[in-house]
């Protein structure tokens, strides 16, 4: 398993090994001991999967606040996404900073988005499937969102604004300035 810490060191890119032959491939996509060795020592309690039929679908920027703060281990099993993690931990030296990585069925990488981070992605191809493990159960009352193109964050998305497909909820999400105090850095 290849492990790479990104510009925000708490965000980790993990690439499991694939063993291929004439039948296809086999991959151990999650191993608790190897994740602990990589610095991801937190139990997962829920798995989610999404399908986006159009290129340009933006899902996010989302998080959950206490008592259901979530960390996510995200992977793309079909198609490709550009996955973004934004530090929303008040007092963190990287507060308001973002990192991104392309996840695809070809590169087989996974992104660890720790608790206290906003998360979102854009699909780079049609019929893209994303799966992610969560460290806390979904709780609607704890859910928060920030608008995907918030000028306070300055995220450089790999698509034009005219290509973006958003849910009604994500179209009206607030700016990042409203996130202060959602999480404390420790």
UniProtKB/TrEMBL annotation:
Keyword Calcium attributed: no
Pathway(s) annotated for this protein in UniProt: Carbohydrate biosynthesis; dTDP-L-rhamnose biosynthesis
MF terms (GO), sorted A to Z: dTDP-4-dehydrorhamnose 3,5-epimerase activity
UniProt xrefs under SUPFAM superfamilies: RmlC-like cupins (SSF51182)
A GO BP annotation: polysaccharide biosynthetic process
Catalytic reactions on record: dTDP-4-dehydro-6-deoxy-alpha-D-glucose = dTDP-4-dehydro-beta-L-rhamnose
Site (Participates in a stacking interaction with the thymidine ring of dTDP-4-oxo-6-deoxyglucose): 138
Family membership noted in the UniProt record: Belongs to the dTDP-4-dehydrorhamnose 3,5-epimerase family.
Quaternary context: Homodimer.
Protein name: dTDP-4-dehydrorhamnose 3,5-epimerase
Source species taxonomy: Bacteria, Pseudomonadati, Pseudomonadota, Alphaproteobacteria, Acetobacterales
């Amino acid at each position: 398993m290849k492990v790479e810490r990104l510009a925000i060191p708490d965000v980790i890119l993990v690439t499991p090994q694939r063993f291929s032959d004439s039948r296809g491939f086999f991959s151990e996509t999650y191993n608790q001991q190897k994740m602990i060795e990589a610095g991801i020592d937190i139990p997962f309690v829920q798995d989610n999967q999404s399908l986006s039929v159009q290129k340009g679908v933006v899902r996010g920027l989302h998080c959950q606040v206490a008592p259901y703060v979530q960390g996510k281990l995200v992977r793309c099993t079909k198609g490709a996404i550009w996955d973004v993690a934004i530090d929303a931990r008040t007092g963190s030296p990287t507060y308001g900073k973002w990192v991104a990585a392309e996840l695809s069925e070809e590169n087989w990488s996974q992104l660890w988005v720790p608790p206290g981070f906003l998360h979102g992605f854009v699909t780079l191809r049609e019929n893209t499937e994303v799966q992610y493990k969560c460290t806390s159960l979904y709780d609607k009352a704890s859910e928060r969102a920030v608008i995907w193109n918030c000028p306070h964050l300055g995220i450089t998305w790999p698509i034009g604004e005219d290509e973006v497909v958003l849910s009604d909820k994500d179209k009206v999400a607030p700016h990042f300035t409203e996130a202060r105090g959602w999480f404390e850095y420790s």
